[in-house]
Amino acid sequence: MPRGTPPKRPALYAEETLIRAILSGAYPPGSSLPPERELAERMGVTRPTLREVLGRLERDGWLTIHHGKPTLINDFWTSGGLNVVSGVVRYAHTLPPDFVPNLLELRLHISPIYARAAIERSAEKVAAFLEGYGLLDDTPRDFADFDWRLHHLLTAVSGNPIYTLILNGFGGFYERMARLYFRQAEAREASRSFYKALLAAARRADGPAAERITKNVMRQSLDFWREANEKALERTARSARHVTEVVGR
């Protein structure tokens, strides 16, 4: 763990430093943190500040505190909550290989439900938003922004605020991944068709149709991502082979 003087908000500095250390394997699951005094000195924060941070990390599932004993690092994938996902997104240097496909699979299961609820509760509001899809520039950035705002609206008017909290947990990560996804012309065209079909369902206030339409496009987006990832791996492998061939000459 790097030593240094924390910035103006030492609690945030300490939290980020600890989470990065856990995610990097400096403190793997099953290991323990150094004593409180030593850890506070390493990070350049006061012990009360460190205790506050440790309490927050225990609440979120990163670690377990036993008073009078070392603080243990948890297997956060099995003991953590939504804040662990947010921490992984913000602080991990590299994401686990299956993280994005797993996220898309989650979206496949929940977005049809909140899309149906949104249209059954606020069809006019959803339709008013979707009417702007025809003005989208054919760029990954515009599609990523529109898609994020659409899903945020759908969760917000679904009647279940937990959906919005889940979505917010991914924040800017969602849009970064969406820009990569929408680099594919096929992905932009599929989403354009989705927006058109969902707009028609909203104008009819047809919740079941919205659920069916959303499920189909979410399944398609998962296939697109897997295909794009496979192509990226193939390009990397070809590049590595080329370098090997050049070096071997």
Walkthrough of the structure:
The chain is mainly α. The chain has two domains: 10-80, Arc Repressor Mutant, subunit A (Orthogonal Bundle); 99-248, Four Helix Bundle (Hemerythrin (Met), subunit A), CATH 1.20.120.530. 72% of the residues lie in helices and 2% in strands. The protein has eleven helices and two strands; from the N terminus they run αααββαααααααα. The protein has helices at 10-24, 36-43, 47-60, 76-79, 82-91, 99-130, 140-156, 161-168, 171-181, 185-203, 207-248; strands spanning 63-64, 72-73. The chain has a two-stranded antiparallel sheet with strand order 1-2. The radius of gyration is 22 Å and the shape is elongated. The chain starts with 9 loop residues before the first helix and ends with a helix.
Based on the coordinates given, report the CATH architecture of the largest domain: Up-down Bundle
- CATH H level, superfamily name of the largest domain: GntR ligand-binding domain-like
CATH topology of the largest domain: Four Helix Bundle (Hemerythrin (Met), subunit A)
Kindly name the structural category.
mainly alpha
Unreliable residue runs: 239-247
How do the helices and strands follow one another from N- to C-terminus?
HHHEEHHHHHHHH
Query: What topology, given as strand order, has the largest sheet?
Result: 1-2
Largest sheet: 2 strands, antiparallel
Number of separate strands: 2
Distance between the termini: 42 Å
CATH class of the largest domain: Mainly Alpha
